[in-house]
Design a protein that fits this description.
CATH topology: Glutaredoxin
Number of domains: 1
CATH class: Alpha Beta
Order of helices and strands: HEEHEHHEHEHEEEEHH
CATH superfamily: Glutaredoxin
Number of strands: 9
Shape: globular
Number of helices: 8
Strand order of the largest sheet: 2-1-5-4-3-8-9
CATH architecture: 3-Layer(aba) Sandwich
Radius of gyration: 19 Å
Structural class: alpha+beta
Length: 217
């Protein structure tokens, strides 16, 4: 097998339906779709004490539980890649009215030092005492006294404070698409459709009714 064919065969393929990635089964997870998100206060990277439940009162939120910055090896790379992909898709998510919050089991100081290097466009919550991960049943690993999320888990929570989707260990390349699909499905729209605002007319209708524009030089 040539190197080119080998690369093609190992590249992750986008699922035929995004429903394949939603409502994942996470062993030990203590919540399921339809449950209210727990009311847990955590210190955010902006210095404020914020509550998971009250944070979702204005817009849907994707809570990413992941391993960093004290994790190492494949565990750290996997978590960081998902976090980076969400950062890269920040504009698409914001345009769809979706907020992102990262949650790790590291201290505020560890997170602050790490954020200075990464420049994330969203908040990180410090769950150093593991109050959130234990309540929610997020699987953990421990190494030399450092607790870290075993594999990335996304909890999509709607404005009503209810869990709309569980996404486990998503492919970083498609994680933004999967998050947006979960939000579209919760709003009663087709999760497989491309990004479009609610109640948007079909493309053909929009073209027929659009006002003519004058190009500027």
């Amino acid at each position: 097998m040539t190197a080119e064919r080998q690369t093609r065969s190992t590249k992750p393929t986008k699922p035929a339906s995004v429903d394949d990635d939603l409502d994942a089964s996470v062993p030990g997870l203590a919540v399921k779709v339809g449950d209210p998100i727990s009311s847990i206060g955590l210190r955010a990277s902006d210095g404020y004490l914020l509550n998971l439940r009250s944070f979702v009162s204005k817009q849907p939120v994707a809570f990413l539980f992941f391993a960093a910055p004290t994790a190492s090896g494949a565990q750290a790379r996997r978590g960081t890649r998902v976090a980076e992909s969400l950062a890269g898709g920040a504009r698409r998510l914001a345009a769809a009215g979706v907020a992102v919050v990262g949650v790790t089991c590291d201290s505020e100081r560890q997170q602050t030092d790490w954020i200075a290097e990464q420049h994330w466009p969203y908040l990180l919550f410090s769950d150093e005492r593991r109050s959130a991960v234990d309540r929610l049943g997020i699987p953990l690993t421990v190494n030399d006294g450092n607790y870290n999320v075993a594999r990335p888990v996304l909890l999509i929570v709607g404005q009503a404070g209810l869990l709309d989707a569980v996404i486990s260990d998503p492919e970083p390349e498609y994680v933004v698409d999967i998050v947006l699909a979960a939000v579209r499905r919760a709003e009663g729209r087709d999760p497989d459709l491309a990004d479009a605002p609610p109640n948007a007319p079909p493309a053909s209708t929009a073209q027929e009714t659009a006002e003519p524009t004058v190009a500027s030089s």
